[in-house]
Amino acid sequence: MRNRLMAMVMAAALAVVAATAVYATDFAVIVHTGNPVKAMALADLGKIFRGKTTSWPNGHGISLVVRDPNSAAMKFILEKVMGGSVDEDKAALNDPGRGKSGASVIFVSSDQDVVKAVESTPGAIGIIDVYNITSGVKVVKIDEKQPFDPGYVLKGRSQ
């Protein structure tokens, strides 16, 4: 009886560990390889997402490439980057007048599509799961930290 109880406890503990590993995600901010930006503050990234910053220091216009704002990953990113409620943040991204005054927003369906759009658009920026990074994009430090660094702000959960 004791062995059976120990086996059940061990199985439950392993299930919790496995579930945590599956849902833990490190996100990376990526830009076109020709973009000179190597690092930025989270507050500056928020300004891009809110449409307050419209061009890079080299003068190229910014194109923000994001996945569906209703996905769990994007909800986490919007919360961290924009700091408002999810509904307010989604409304800011979907604002029809945004293209006139802010960085344009391109919605895509997958991280691979984010990568493709950023690779092919000199002013593009996007956020993806770190395991989708390719040599065709450049990772930008946020608050002087790279993904996997202790204290990296875009470490989160995804479903």
Describe the fold and architecture:
The protein is an alpha/beta fold. It has one domain (25-157): Periplasmic binding protein-like II (D-Maltodextrin-Binding Protein, domain 2, 3-Layer(aba) Sandwich), CATH 3.40.190.10. The protein is 41% helix and 23% strand. The chain has six helices and seven strands, in the order H-E-E-H-E-H-H-H-E-H-E-E-E. It has helices at 2-23, 42-50, 72-82, 86-94, 98-101, 111-120, and strands at 24-32, 39-40, 63-67, 104-108, 124-129, 137-142, 155-157. Strands 1, 2, 3, 4, 5, 6 and 7 form a seven-stranded mixed sheet that branches. The protein is globular, with a radius of gyration of 18 Å. The N and C termini lie far apart (37 Å).
